[in-house]
Structures are given as structure tokens and as C-alpha cells.
Amino acid sequence: LDVLQLDGANAVVVDYKTNSLAEAAPEAIVEADYRLQRLVYALACFRAGADEVEVVYHFLERVDAVVSTRFTRAQVPDLEAELSAAIDRINAADFRPTPSEYVCAGCPALDVVCAGPRLREHEPAHAALAGV
Length: 132
What we know:
The protein contains five helices and four strands; from the N terminus they run ββααββααα. The longest helix has 16 residues. It has a four-stranded mixed sheet with strand order 1-2-3-4, with helices on one face. A hairpin with a 2-residue loop joins β1 and β2. The chain folds into two domains: 93 residues, no CATH class; 36 residues, no CATH class. It is an alpha+beta fold.
């Protein structure tokens, strides 16, 4: 969190990111890496009294790499449910790998001890086995 503006019923959170974007879309990075952070920011603003929250991620590597999401108070139950589900996964020690080209780029374990993004090719089978 770099900037927070609470103005009556409206809140704006701006988080500047220094990530290297390479060829990745900023929206994909936010969805993959900052989804929970984004909803925690929104929930905190709602708890502070906001009725509408805008969460903005600005990637400093590219001036046009800005991802903005708006939330309304009506979404609070869904945001709380998503956060609760994440907490439940943490408490259950359910840490499934989430490899991607972006996340795995430059990792020294890639292709040495980990298949990285190629693991995603086997996700349907992994998901089916998770219920066993």
C-alpha cells in the first residue's frame, strides 16, 4: 500500500509495483499474484466506512501499466467469503503450486527440480486427484 485516500464514502488505494512485466499483461499479474491483496485492501476500506473502493496497481516499468478495480459495499459478502476460503486453505496447509511463465521466469529450480509452467498441463488430473 503506497497511497490511501478516504474521502467520505469513497476510497482509493494505489499500490506501486516494481515487478518486471516482461511480456506479461499487467491484468494477468494482478489476478495471479495480487488477487488476495486487492480484496484485503477493499475490505479494510469498507471496514473504515467506505461505500465504494477503487484499488489501483501501477507497474512502474511501464507508464501505461495500470490496473484498476472498483468494489461496492454490495460485494463485501463475496469478498469475505473468498478471503475466508483462502484462510481455510492456509489453515489446512493446502499450498498447491501455481506455476506460470511470469512467476517461474528466472527461477533457479526451473527444469532442475521443478517443471514450472508445464505442471499446468496436468492440472485437470491433479484437480481430480485432489478430491480423493
